[in-house]
Amino acid sequence: MTTIENLREKLDLFVCTACKTGGLAAQDAHLVCSNCAKSFPIVRDVARFVPDSGYAESFGFQWNLHAGTQLDSFTGKPISRNRLFEASRWPTDLSGQTILEAGSGAGRFTEVLVTTGATIISCDLSSAVDANYRSNGQNANLLIAQASLLDLPVRPRSFDKVMCLGVIQHTPDPEKSFSCLADCVRPGGELVIDVYAARLRSLLSWKYLLRPITRRMDGKKLYRLIESVTPALLPISDFLYRILGRFGLRLLPIVQYPELKLPRDLALHWAVLDTFDMYSPAHDHPQTLATVRRWFENAGFADIVVVYGPNGIVGRGRRPASAA
User: Fold this and answer.
1) Are 30 and 41 in contact (CB under 8 A)?
2) E strands present in the chain
3) Those residues with Cβ within 8 angstroms of residue 76's Cβ, 6 or more apart along the chain or in another chain
4) Residues 108 and 226 in one domain
5) Residue 228 lies in a domain
6) Does one domain contain both 306 and 258?
7) Is residue 7 domain-resident?
8) What is the full per-residue pLDDT of the chain (324 aa) written as tens digits?
9) 132 and 208 inside one domain
10) Are residues 163 and 84 in the same domain?
């Protein structure tokens, strides 16, 4: 049974990205617009609203290669679960609600969201949707789609909750991306994001020193380079962390997380993955607390909270129930 068949009755949440008005119906291996007859293929059980990964190609590459690396079911630790609920402050039981997850990657947060009992629509621009489907596609309350955050195939103001963690800074226009997400939140609904922080200590780092070179490199060659040097640098990073704390981790051009206490092999895979994730994206646009708060205010949200979090800045807010 395909994802579309599992949630055929939930297709009323979708809208054609071509005409912006027509609903979609499942016909054979396609979704077809009732208004303009535009057809969107269902390939490997995932609805495809874009022809390719576009600027997010590096993410498709890394998440299909590391499909399980950051899944809680693989690490045996609630790393993704803790980050999701600490950022969102949502209850763990969301039965009867609808959630839009924008920028799913390999599905580390999707795996957690499906346990809440809500209906989940999970989108990503890249071919990472294939990794997500392999890990989570068996869940009857989940529908996965390959789509652009800037052109989401969903009806405006139709979701109880919208979540986008670790993605907005990697889009060409973070403010427009935020606006597109905000448009999906129904009156009374909630939006949660996180985004890299534009702080001096972050900007004066190996990442922003080397990215002008690395983001122009062939992704596979860059990955092989990182894969070859990280095993040698990881023990040095461990030593620097023991004597200098987190400052020591900033002295080498790799990423690692000793506080997670991962097994050695998994810590190496995680370091390779996140180092590649740091240097390869086409876009990396960190933001300030004031900017993120302005986004929420301009979108008309209330109960706004914008604070520093483990991945930079966490922002959350609620669309007033009386909003037109």
Assistant:
1) yes
2) 24-27, 30-33, 39-43, 46-48, 98-102, 119-124, 142-146, 159-165, 185-195, 302-309, 312-318
3) none
4) no
5) yes
6) no
7) no
8) 455 555 566 788 999 999 999 999 988 899 999 999 999 999 999 999 999 999 999 999 999 999 999 999 999 999 999 999 999 999 999 999 999 999 999 999 999 999 999 999 999 999 999 999 999 999 999 999 999 999 999 999 999 999 999 999 999 999 999 999 999 999 999 999 999 999 887 778 899 999 999 999 999 999 999 999 999 999 999 999 999 998 999 999 999 999 999 999 999 999 999 999 999 999 999 999 999 999 999 999 999 999 999 999 999 999 999 754
9) no
10) yes
d(CA 50, CA 42): 11
Residue 229 included in any domain: yes
pTM over 0.85: yes
Contact 170, 178 (CB under 8 A): no
Q: Take residue 73 and report the two structure tokens written for it.
A: 């079911």
Residue with tokens 């999970």: 122
Contact partners, residue 281, CB within 8 Å, separation at least 6 = 56, 58, 59, 170, 215
Task: Say if residues 174 and 196 touch (Cβ distance below 8 Å).
Answer: no
Distance CA 272, CA 268 (A): 6
Number of domains in the chain: 2
**62/174 same-domain check:** yes
DSSP secondary structure letters along 118-149: SEEEEEESSTHHHHHHHHHTT-TTEEEEE--G
DSSP-derived secondary structure for 174-223: HHHHHHHHHTTEEEEEEEEEEE-B--HHHHSSHHHHHHHHHTTS-HHHHH
Specify whether 125 is located in the same domain as 232: no
209 with 264, same domain: the answer is yes
Angle between helix 289-298 and 174-182 (nearest 10): 40
For residue 100, the domain's CATH number is 3.40.50.150
For residue 266, what are the domain limits? Answer: 200-279
Residues 117 and 64 in one domain: yes
Whether residue 32 is contained in a domain is answered as no
